[in-house]
Specification:
This protein is an alpha/beta fold. The chain has 2 domains: 6-63 and 382-431, Urease, subunit C, domain 1 (Roll), CATH 2.30.40.10; 65-368, TIM Barrel (Alpha-Beta Barrel). Helix content is 37%, strand content 22%. The protein has 15 helices and 17 strands. Helix 12 packs across helix 13. It is globular and about 65 Å long.
Length: 465
């Protein structure tokens, strides 16, 4: 479908996320090409000429959601390792399956993941670690065709450890120093800034124990030269803390500071096992934390100190993580968890209110991607990354306070329309840049072959007749 050059969204409940956090109860957004031209009351914008008019009556109109920690390859292995301990989760299931990817597995999984993200309102995402066997080039091409905004991070590693466990990595997941950097360089030259500016290529550093201090420092220098960003897991498990203490006599952020990793161009995933000094250091350098509540709960990793981070001034965003650790890529569900779990953890119902959850899922994500001057709010001159959420549904009625109702009662499948860069990716809940039936059929076929090839058996614990 060729997208119209101008779109008028009218009669919606427009949550702008602008500096004044204005809401237009009967509002409109006028889009010209890929830009937001005007935002305001519907009466004031009613005379705008548009090729396409979308009536958003009964809908929230808001910035697209930004998922700051995504494993595209893990959509294909959704539910492969439920209710198991973390080490078994990695060694017996996740790494084994990902280490047996071949052919179009990576592309098929990426398309499945993007279809779900679009359906549930995500417009931008950070893919954290693309292994060479997933097919970076094919994944980038899929992102270009599907129309999402993405930072694609190539795995960087030079060791086979994981935190304080040495030589733990599954053979199919191992890459060497030179190959990682060479592929990143090639993909950066080919894809960075392409797809009408929607695509960036980042460095995806593997976890502590798989990257040497020399390689950390080398990547920091390379990312500065290329003016691109980095991402990595940090403090997801207490083993991370032991690793840097035993090997370097430092805390996590002392080590990160020495490596040069503390920068606004870094997105740390999880950030659970951090002390007060760590939070102060993260805030000082404006290094980003991607909060993954579902994953942290499911794997019993712990509770990130999000209320403390926000109070300290640490930039925080929200993320779904992957198919085995979350089982969905639904950012609206993730907002709900992010708003709920910390209330119970600190026995304070006032922390992480609905408004803060929405800020983290939109503007927080834009900050993490270094794109807050371009996306994350509905303002004149910003790119038109917009979603319409249908609030006229049984589970969302009555809708007295649409902001809190979205967070506490919402679900991603209430999303009706998704626009990225002024282009319709979904309208009336119909995907426009992907064939949904084909995506599902491909995923089922490739998943079956992958399970057979890897020898991983996924069965219910109860007897199946």
């Amino acid at each position: 479908m060729v997208s119209p050059e101008s779109i008028l969204i009218k009669n919606g409940y427009v949550i702008t996320l602008d500096s004044k956090r204005r809401i237009f109860q009967n509002g409109s957004v006028y889009i010209k090409n890929k830009w937001i031209a005007e935002v305001g009351k519907s009466d004031a914008l009613s005379s705008r000429n548009a090729e396409l008019v979308l009536d958003a009556r009964g809908m929230i109109v808001m910035p697209g959601l930004v998922d700051t920690h995504v494993h595209l390859a893990q959509a294909l292995i959704r539910g492969c390792a439920d209710d198991v301990s973390l080490v078994d989760w990695l060694k017996k299931y996740v790494w084994v399956l990902q280490g047996n990817f071949e052919g179009d597995d990576g592309k098929v999984s990426a398309e499945l993941c993007m279809a779900e993200m679009i359906r549930t309102g995500t417009t931008s995402f950070i893919e954290c670690m693309i292994h060479s066997r997933y097919g970076f080039d094919k994944i980038a091409k899929a992102v270009e065709q599907v129309g999402m905004r993405a930072a694609l991070s190539k795995i960087i590693m030079d060791s086979t450890g994981y935190a304080d466990s040495s030589d733990i990595m599954y053979p199919g997941m191992i890459e060497d120093h030179d190959a990682c950097l060479d592929e990143t360089d090639r993909m950066y030259n080919k894809w960075h800034g392409k797809a009408d500016g929607r695509l960036e290529v980042w460095y995806g550093l593997r976890s502590l124990g798989a990257v040497s201090p020399d390689l950390f420092k080398e990547v920091v220098q390379l990312s500065e030269e290329k003016e691109t960003h980095m991402t990595m897991h940090l403090g997801e498990i207490v083993d991370d803390v032991r690793y840097v203490r035993d090997n370097f006599n430092q805390t996590l952020t002392e080590f990160a500071e020495e490596m040069g990793l503390l920068t606004p161009r870094m997105v740390f995933a999880h950030g659970i096992h951090l002390d007060d000094n760590d939070l102060t250091r993260l805030a000082k350098y404006r290094a980003n934390i991607a909060h993954c509540p579902s994953s942290n709960l499911k794997l019993a990793s712990g509770f990130a100190r999000i209320p403390d981070m926000l109070e300290a001034g640490v930039p925080v965003s929200i993320a779904c993580d992957g198919g085995p650790s979350n089982n969905t890529y639904d950012m609206i569900r993730e907002m709900r968890l992010a708003a709920l779990i910390h209330k119970a953890k600190v026995s304070n119902p006032l922390v992480v209110p609905a408004e803060t959850a929405i800020e983290m899922a939109t503007l927080g994500g834009a900050v993490a991607m270094g794109l807050d001057n371009m996306v994350g709010s509905l303002e004149t001159g910003k790119l038109a990354d917009i979603i319409l959420v249908n609030m006229r549904e049984i589970g969302l009625t009555p809708n007295s306070n649409p902001v809190s109702n979205l967070v506490y009662a919402g679900i991603g499948h209430a999303v009706d329309t998704v626009i990225v860069n002024g282009r319709l990716l979904m309208n009336g809940k119909k995907l426009l840049t992907l064939n949904e039936d084909q995506v599902i059929d491909n995923a089922i076929e490739h998943s079956r072959a992958l399970l057979e090839r890897s020898g991983v058996d996924i069965q219910p614990k109860w007897p199946v007749q």
